[in-house]
Amino acid sequence: DVQMVDEVQVEYFDSNTQRIITKQDWADQLCNDKPRELESETERKKGQQQVFKGNIGTLKKRFNQTGGAHIVQRMYGCEWDDEDGTTEGYEQYGYDGEDFISLDLKTLTWVAPVHQAFPSKLRLDHDTAQNQYKKNYFNKECVDWLKVYLVYGKSTLQRTERPRVSLLRRSPSSPVVCHATGFYPDRVVVFWRRDGQELHEQVDPGEVLPNHDGTFQVSVDRCLTAVPQEDWGRRYECVVQLKGIEDISTPLDPAHIRTNGGETITSLLSSSLVLLVVAAVAVVVGVFLYRKKNDSEKRHKPVDSDTSSENTEGQKLAPEYQPLSTGQS
């Protein structure tokens, strides 16, 4: 059982020691301030282990499996937009790496993408009281806890770290990549611009990835063929937008593009000119520029993942984990 807020791990449950292990100093303080919640949450997680074991047995029968290693996973959480106050919640189950069943909070019904999940859907849909409770939990209690986390972890979760931006290229014939790294939070927008206008054609959005130090990185590229090099720095630029800081604009200057060998494009072109004079070889280089735009979410979000192998007094940190069958099939 692992709990995260805005991609930052807060705690996990160690099934061997039967204890909740915190991963942040501010989470230690939260546990010290709310010992009753810590105790009740620990007992809840202990009980979930047995339910998980039962669910694995149920699903092995549903999928006609007799042995081997199998995994049941549950992921749930809520999202809160601190600008407009909107919230969202979700709960979903997976089995052996594939979607098994998920809750639709709008209709308060369960969605079964595989026929082996239909018996679970019928049972869970019938429990209208539990589904109504989940709706209240994801829209209210979960969000209240999220706000508590943001207060305790303000120095970590609400910090802003400015990205470092580089222009990279593997070889003279490969795309020019705008690489932003070291930023926090992960809700960043990176795009290429020409003559002040954002480019959309031939876009392949880059994925925001975590760094080992808790910050994030993203690479963005876009293809522009037959663009004269004299137009690069004059017309094209990479723009990085992160809430809390001014836009970072990096002109597409050949002198600032780094290659795998550590040289800049300018030095590579100079070497090519020498080669041209000595060997009288003409080289035509196609110029490519690629872009990916990251559509990261603006919302704060805690995520809790269970895997087998403001005033929050009295509130639950998580909704109850349910058996996926009645014990019959």
TrEMBL record:
GO terms for cellular component: external side of plasma membrane; extracellular space. Keywords: Glycoprotein, Membrane, Transmembrane, Transmembrane helix. InterPro entries: Ig-like_dom (IPR007110), Ig-like_dom_sf (IPR036179), Ig-like_fold (IPR013783), Ig_C1-set (IPR003597), MHC_class-I_related (IPR050208), MHC_I-like_Ag-recog (IPR011161), MHC_I-like_Ag-recog_sf (IPR037055), MHC_I/II-like_Ag-recog (IPR011162). The chain crosses the membrane at residues 268-290. Pfam families: C1-set, MHC_I. Residues 295-304 have a biased composition (Basic and acidic residues). The keyword Glycoprotein applies. Residues 295-329 are annotated as: Disordered. Residues 305-314 have a biased composition (Polar residues). Residues 163-249 form the Ig-like domain. One of its GO terms (biological process) is immune response. PANTHER family: MHC CLASS I ANTIGEN TRANSCRIPT VARIANT 1-RELATED, MHC CLASS I-RELATED. Belongs to the MHC class I family. This is MHC class Ia antigen. The lineage of its organism: Eukaryota, Metazoa, Chordata, Craniata, Vertebrata.
